[in-house]
Amino acid sequence: MTKQMHNAEEKWVPTSCNGCFNVCAVQVKVKDNKIVNVKGDPIATSSRKKICGKGIARIADPYAPNRILKPLKRTNPEKGIGVDPKWKEISWDEAMDTVIKKLKEVLEDDPRKLVIGHFDLHNANIAHAFGGAFGTPNCEYFTVSCGNGLHTLIEVTAGTANLEIDLEHCDYIVLWGSQLGHGVNNNPMESARDMANARRRGAKLVVIDPICGHAAAKADEWVPILPGTDGAMALGMLNVLLNDLGIYDSEYLKKNTNASYLIDDSGYYVRDKKSDKPLVWDTANEKPKEYDADDIADRALEGEFIVDGVKCKPAFDLLKAHIKENYPLDKVSQITTVPEDVIARLAKEFGEAAGIGRTIAIDGHELPFRPAAVEFKKGANQHKNSFFSCHSLMLLNIVVGNVNMPGGVIGTNPKGPFNLWDVIKSQDGLLASTFISALTGGEGSYSCFLEPYPTREIKIPETIDYRDLFPLSGYVTTITTFVLADPDKFKLPYKPNTMILSRTNLMASTAEPPKTAKALLNMDFILGFGMKMDETLEFADIVLPEAHDLERDWVFPANIPAGFLQPGPGDWYFQINQAVVDPPPGVRSWLEVLTDIAERLGILDEFNNRLNIRLGLGAVEQLALKPGTKYSIKEIALRAANLISGMAGQALPPDMFTEKNPVLSLGDKSVEEAYPGAFTSDAKVPIYFEHFLDVGKKIKKVTQEMGMDWWDVSHYDPMPKWRPCPAFEEDGKEYDLFIANSKVPLHFQTTSADNPWVNDICSRNRLDYNLLLNTQTAEDKGIQDGDTVIVESRVGKIKGKVRVTGCVHPQVIGTLGIHGHWSKGKPIAKGKGVNFNTLVPFDINNMAMISGQLDNCARVKIYKA
To answer: Residues 238-287: pLDDT tens digits?
Structure first.
């Protein structure tokens, strides 16, 4: 393929963009082995000719003058923030000899001491296979703290890791701390088109957010809210719906949720003594029955009943009473700063727009139609109470019956093609999913995702992600830095001392950088891969030049069907990923280097075996990776493509990797796959988490056995509660404002900050790179637009230019993106903008013990520099 490409003077080559985790399909124009243009692929569903600004700008990155092109060796033994490593260029042979020697020592001592840190999400199976072959379970160290509670909640309520609004049918769209359809979030090209179409046909858009970002600026209504109070407002709206207006879908709650399950005074299900199944009350027959009995005439949602001498009530009755007592509008308004009348009006509009009782005909099926939905992402999640904050928002969707229904919120493909994965139910009848284990051959997780229900085993942890004490979380990452920084406190039976890092810049993307640095300083040896030097690679001992994703092959496919393939109607497909040009001489993909390391360490056969398991190749003899053979990533990708094609009952087209055939199409989704909520009522969506009670008790027992009495188990409640962020409990006299962060479409994490084209555009924007201060707040503090100011929290401070605007909550200082880089290896990004994370405390007391989410709330003060 490469020689043919070189012989052609000019050619369009299909692949996928890795400018964010959504990997839109693109076509890249190549001339004389140089990238000269890029466009959205006209055939692939994820783009259909469209591409975002950062996707176009990325073609400048391979040709950056500050790109790392040769292996580097550290000559300065001192390490720390801003310490010059005094790099020396060395040969690949010297670099690899150094790496192999160190890894052999670890392999012979204790393989678990090796930590692999990366955010190469779509190639995670390579890192996992290498780690498994090496003998370390610590294969995914990165502290992206965006979705710990969020993904967990969505998986147990919608059957998959992400959800989106059915924009084709929704009439009342609520984006809560989210910017779906405005160039960010999942499936940005598709959702931008669908959001525009929805607005054209008259759909109303309401955005609830402390900052009036890109989505709020285009909304019908922006509702500024105090950071960290989203759950309280949602429960207040729920109180209006359930107790004031009586707007809820009783039939959906009875049929599709555990709202009718009977709960005793201790908080547990009332169970049948023989089968141990939860009981419901049949109102027609006036007797308790097993929840899945065939002869239930009608399930009670309210009332008090006696079962075997035990008083009990349906879960829904308890929920109504709980929110009525604890979340009246005056209290909620005081917490959130949102006026009572606004909360009440939004609840009424949402409930009425849901149109409970309406149906819609789709492909010969009469389905429930609920054209009102709430979508939420990082904004609501980034707090200590993240799981229940997200659950409170999700309950607004659940009570109107819109989950996985037309017009509502749709999980990203809970049901897969040819039964590859499906929604299932637990012994108690609650929704569970098999998509993660289906994608990994049952071995571990797909990258960072875990299956949070049914509950995993609780035991003394032996991995740095401490997942054995987070059995309810579907996404555990943040605690890894705490464990690495202080392994004695967390009582690991070994001390990690060696690290491989690629495509992650945790020093810039994690809170309170000095504390994050402690984790890196505890490493005796760090091997890093990178295109440019960054704040994290400056702690490395050896740095190897990494290929740009347009210069490397990926493990097929790019888009995870259960994660980043647009939900709802459409087609099942897998995108092409391939190198469109050769990398510069001496530059290699870290994936290829891992295979070389596996061969030199003598673990290649086990590496192949692990890949066979994780990719499913072992099930087909002619596709399985053979012992004693080293395969290129391209060869592995082709085998994976052939496997998927074969499962779909078709041969892989010979022109698969060409402009004419850029996707592997598996056919259209069925109605059941597009809208599974109408077909999976036996797998019930939880409004009440009874199993949390036992999990909290078991975790307390284990942590006490470990001598870790400080481990907090107070959040294991069966019903949602709003809890204030730790910052709310601090004295607000000196630090009288809150800091908040919002995403801009042209930036992704820390990867885009050094791009010259993106920088040029953002430098022209009045708000980008600057601090946002409310007009009235600025006047009160004597600060004017354009002033250079200091923003200080109790753990750090940042310096920047302030922009006075009405586009931010009066009690909030707004920041956009993650900037403020300090590495000399990023000359464009260095000193540009501010680093929000510098102000956020990295404190174990600020971490959610259910989900592992780190709280991003911080009190700050502002003054002129």
So the answer is: 999 999 999 999 999 999 999 999 999 999 999 999 999 999 999 999 99
Q: pTM of the predicted model, to two decimals?
A: 0.96
**DSSP calls for 410-465:** EES-SS-GGGSS-EEE-TTSBEEE-HHHHHTTTSS-BTTB---SSPPP-----STT
- HSE-up of 111 (CA within 13 Å, CB side)? 12
- Stretch 189-205: mean pLDDT: 96
Higher local confidence (pLDDT), 700 or 654: 700
Please state, in angstroms and as integers, the Cα–Cα distance from residue 67 to each residue in 19, 33, 173, 307, 587, following that order. Answer: 17, 18, 43, 71, 10
Q: pLDDT at position 185, please?
A: 86
Question: 450 Cβ partners below 8 Å, 6+ apart?
Answer: 436, 456, 467, 473, 474, 475, 476
Give yes or no for a contact between 580 and 550, defined as CB atoms under 8 angstroms apart. Answer: yes
pLDDT at res. 573: 85
Write down the CATH superfamily of domain 163-411: Dimethylsulfoxide Reductase, domain 2 (3.40.228.10)
Instruction: Check pLDDT > 50 for residue 5.
Output: no
Q: Is 200 exposed, middle or buried (0-12, 13-18, 19+ CB in 10 A)?
A: exposed
Three-state DSSP at 555 gives: coil
Residue type at 598? A
CATH number 3.40.50.740 is the correct assignment for the domain at 72-146+445-601: yes
Q: Let me know: does 299 contact 282? Beta carbons within 8 Å.
A: yes
- Does residue 838 contact residue 797 with C-beta atoms inside 8 Å? yes
72-146+445-601 and 163-411 agree in CATH topology: no
Q: Which helix (H) or strand (E) holds 792?
A: strand 788-792
Indicate the domain borders of the chain. 2-63, 72-146+445-601, 163-411, 726-864
**What is the rounded CA–CA span in Å between residue 371 and residue 409?**
9
pLDDT band at 4 (very low <50, low <70, confident <90, very high): very low
The CATH class of the 726-864 domain is: mainly beta
Residue with tokens 């400056």: 538
Alpha-helical regions (H) of 58-145: 92-109, 124-134
Residue pair 645/664 in contact (Cβ under 8 Å)? The answer is: yes
Looking at the predicted structure, is the pLDDT value of residue 1 above 70?
no
Fold of 2-63: N-terminal domain of TfIIb (2.20.25)
Residue 131: partners with Cβ closer than 8 Å, 6 or more residues away: 114, 116, 137, 138, 139
**Integer Cα distance of 824 and 609 in angstroms:** 41
Collapsing DSSP states into helix, strand and coil, what is residue 217? helix
What would the mean pLDDT of 2-17 be, rounded to a whole number? 71
Q: What would the pLDDT profile of 643-662 be if each residue is shown by its tens digit?
A: 888 887 888 888 888 877 88
Among 732, 820, 712, smallest CA distance to 226 is for: 732
pLDDT score, position 142:
72
Q: What are phi and psi of 96, to 5 degrees?
A: -70, -40
C-alpha torsion angle, residues 100, 101, 104, 110 (rounded to 10)? -120
Quick: pLDDT tens for 832-863: 999 999 999 999 999 999 988 999 999 999 99
